[in-house]
Design brief:
The complex is a heterodimer of chains A (179) and B (75). Chain A is 77% helix and 0% strand. Chain A has 179 residues and is mainly alpha-helical. By secondary structure, chain B is mainly alpha-helical. Chain B has a two-stranded antiparallel ribbon. Classes of the chains: A mainly alpha (179), B mainly alpha (75). Chains A and B meet through loops of A and α3 of B.
């Protein structure tokens, strides 16, 4: 009964992970397209992804605009990569034998992605705060890095779990090769 | 690894097959194969005792230490 419930929860989470991955991929794709448009057709800067308007920043300083936009783009791509890794892990993981080097490596990857997203979001938030002190308008950017601390905390926890998991796999391999 | 397993040599000396040894020692064929090919990371004293008993030999006849550098200079 418990196994059936676990399987149900697992497949439910798998579907949710797919949906989030599709959403994040669309967001990252939209932002990439916008980035190239802003390079060659600057008049599109006022109509960026999800009605993001960075015209003032673009006119004030190209460096600030491309700096902030690079952060937005990198974070959204990293988020998509994170969920792709989660999906690959859930797809290939054998629930009856979960302790394998593949799972350990994927968990480490997930922790690196999460920590990178958290740290980049934190740096970006500080950068935008500084830019706002210098008179740039960047109020509408908050939702891109609102949860930086949560990502850092989650990344740290996943990193610890991944390290323990890796050690566990090593011990299991050693045990398997003991005659 | 500098520890070499000479199980195949002892088995040849006693004219014993892997199947026969596996039956007499009580180890699975796959585990014996792991030991024979040198993939094993550890061996239990109880396993070593059983192998030595069946092959009528000493642990030193099965296990050998060979330093990598010494080995290359000897060659």
């Amino acid at each position: 009964m418990a196994t059936r419930t676990n399987n149900f929860v697992f497949w439910g989470l798998y579907i949710v992970a797919w949906l989030i991955f599709i959403g994040l991929s669309i967001e990252a794709g939209g932002l990439i397209v916008n980035f190239f448009f802003s390079l060659y057709r600057p008049e599109f800067v006022q109509n960026l992804y999800q009605k993001l308007d960075l015209t003032e920043m673009y006119n004030d300083s190209r460096l600030a605009f491309f700096g902030v936009y690079s952060f937005i783009l990198t974070i959204s791509i990293l988020k998509a990569c994170l969920f792709y890794t989660v999906i690959r892990l859930m797809h290939k993981m054998d629930l009856s034998k979960p302790f394998s080097t593949f799972v350990a490596r994927q968990l480490s990857l997930i922790s690196y992605y999460t920590l990178s997203i958290g740290l980049l979001s934190f740096i970006a938030r500080q950068l935008v705060k500084n830019l706002m002190h210098h008179g740039f308008v960047a109020d509408n950017l908050n939702h891109f890095w609102a949860d930086s601390q949560a990502f850092i905390l989650m990344g740290a926890i996943i990193y610890i779990i991944a390290t323990i998991f890796k050690k566990g796999v090593e011990i299991q391999n050693e045990n398997d090769l003991t005659v | 690894m500098p520890i070499i397993v000479n199980l195949d040599v002892m088995m040849a000396k006693r004219k014993m097959s892997l199947n026969e040894l596996s039956e007499k020692v009580g180890l699975t064929l796959s585990n014996l194969s792991i030991l024979k090919t040198g993939k094993a990371k550890a061996i239990r004293f109880s396993t070593l005792e059983a192998i030595c008993k069946v092959l009528e030999c000493q642990p030193g006849d099965i296990l050998e230490y060979a330093d990598k550098e010494q080995k290359t200079t000897n060659q």
